[in-house]
Amino acid sequence: MVIELSSILGIITERLILTAIDGETRNLKNLLVCDFMNRDLVLVAGSPSGDVSEIMGMVTNHRVRHLPITDSCPLAGKISAGNVVKAQLDLVAVENHYSKACIQG
After folding, report:
1. For the segment 7-64, what is each residue's pLDDT rounded down to a tens digit?
2. Pairing mode, if any, of strands 66-69 and 7-10?
3. Which domain holds residue 30?
4. How far is the C-alpha of 85 from the C-alpha of 82, rounded, in Å?
5. Same structural domain for residues 49 and 79?
6. Which pLDDT does position 31 carry in this prediction?
7. I need a surface site. Which of 29, 38, 56, 88 has the fewest CB within 10 A?
8. How many CB atoms lie within 10 A of CB 104?
């Protein structure tokens, strides 16, 4: 996350950096974050203990891979699409385990 004076200005990701240097012989020292960061952010307001399915919906609907989580401070954390998928897979694994146990008696 790119933060200035307690405000989230944007996000810079490894993909954005690779896009910035793709096919170029530029030195990374000469690149400015502000020239390549994504300023079009979807901010999740509320508690970091929010519902994962709600976050999954936001990641899917807004087609973003990284979602800043805000609370009373400008940035409480960040969640990625990978984090959401892992949480969902963990839940399915637990449900699957109990379903099998119930069937097997």
Report:
1. 888 889 888 888 888 766 667 777 888 888 988 887 776 677 878 888 888 888 888 8
2. unpaired
3. 1-40
4. 5
5. yes
6. 80
7. 29
8. 6
